[in-house]
Amino acid sequence: MISNVKRFNRTVLLACAPFLGMMAWLLISPFSLSLSLPGTGGASADTVPLLSRLAAQTQSGLDGAAVVAKDISASIKKVSELYIKTNESMNAIMTTAAAQVNRPGQIYDKRITGRLGSVTDSVQSDNLRAQLFSIRAQNFSGYALKVKLKSAKAMSMTLGKDKVGGSETTLAAVKRTGAVAGINAGGFADSGGKRYPLSTTVVNGKYVTGFESSYKDLSFVGLSDSLKLIGGKFYSQADLDKLNPKFGASFVPMLRKNGVNLPIPAKWQTNPLRAPRTVIANYKDDQLLLLVIDGRDENGSSGATLEEIQILLQRFGAIDAYNLDGGGSSTLVFKGRVVNHPSDGQLRPLATNFLFFQ
């Protein structure tokens, strides 16, 4: 489309060039006539009629040139007006075409946003767009955060206090790094007074404690260097490396893959039955969906079952979904405040947190 505009501009310039050149010549070329007959020392009586005729012819030529110049000026004006109108039309066509190109994405975003309900708070920047929603179901309540990542700076995962074995609350991690939002990430194991991330963990493209083959329903979930949610069970580092993980953590179980709910392993159907939950999922346009469900405790008496979470994810139109650490770990921080109600009654220090930057 842009090359067509350029070609049109060149055509206009070529069309106007002869007219412009003629006008310039008429304007700068002096008309002068000098006639001297040999031996007369000037004009004689016989030469006066000749001079008069020449002067008349010259005046006639100038009058004709003036008419031609006027016609050329009118032609250039018409070409210029046509150029302006055509340029405006082509710009309008380009604007319309750009809008049409984005229209399918806008329609899809409107549809999935409508399923989540009304936006209660939001953040918009060059790095991301984050929209917060409240969730109210029959047996539980919680929050959803839909995030569109626009740059590689928009999301990261951090270790507790940036140390292997370190721990910090999601709120502390958000404040320390200047993030605009954060959720708890993978599971952890305590040893020697330290809190270590569970199984395969990647930060800044590097394996924190080495690669560990998936076992006992554990799955890895993270973000690739192309800002796509990646995850699943990996039995070799080479298979995970093919996806170019930028960061990620491990927990159990996978909930949804390619738009289909996966069977919940028997152990996780009742252990616990209900609990606070944290889930990360994606849409087909690579937007992320984060769910944080509240509950009173981890004893199975409140919160959501994993099957209920799957129903919710299907209703919301998520494509892939992964269960993250839940219970007292489930925390959602948005714009400097803890949005949900962690079941411990206080924030739990964690080994890993997913963070989002404005």
From TrEMBL:
Residues 178-357 form the Phosphodiester glycosidase domain. Keywords: Glycosidase, Hydrolase. The lineage of its organism: Bacteria, Bacillati, Bacillota, Bacilli, Bacillales. One of its GO terms (molecular function) is hydrolase activity, acting on glycosyl bonds. It holds the Pfam family NAGPA. It comes from the Bacteria. This is Phosphodiester glycosidase family protein. PANTHER family: N-ACETYLGLUCOSAMINE-1-PHOSPHODIESTER ALPHA-N-ACETYLGLUCOSAMINIDASE. It comes from Cohnella zeiphila. InterPro entries: NAGPA.
